[in-house]
Amino acid sequence: MAKAFFRLQKFLRRTQFLLFFLTAAYLMAGSLLLLQRTRLVIQQGSRGSPTNQALPVPEEMGRVGIIDPRTLQSPRPGPRLLVGMDALQEPALDQRHSPHWLLSRNSELRQLRRRWFHRFTSDQEPLQSSGFKVMKHTAEHKGTYMGCFTHDSRERTLKGAVFYDLRKMTVAHCQEACAERAYSYAGLAYGAECYCGNTLPAGPARPEECSSECRGQKGSVCGGVNRLSVYSLEQLRAAARTRRNVIYRGCFRAPENLTDIFPASLIQPNLTVEMCSEFCSKKEFPLAVIRGQECHCGYPTRHFSLRQGTDGLRCSGTHNTSSAAGGEHCLVYQTPVQDTRCTDRKFLTTKSKVFVALSSFPGAGNTWARHLIEHATGYYTGSYYFDGALYNKGFKGEKDHWRSRRTICVKTHESGRTEIEMFDSAILLIRNPYKSLMAEFNRKYAGHLGYATDRNWKSKEWPDFVNSYASWWASHVLEWLKYGKRLLVVHYEELKQSLIPKLKEMVEFLNVTVTEDRLLCVENNRDGNFKRSGAKQKNFEPFTQEMKDLINRYILTVDEALRGRNFSGLPREYVPR
Question: In this predicted model, what pLDDT tens digit does every residue of 568-577 receive, in sequence order?
Answer without folding.
Answer: 999 988 866 5
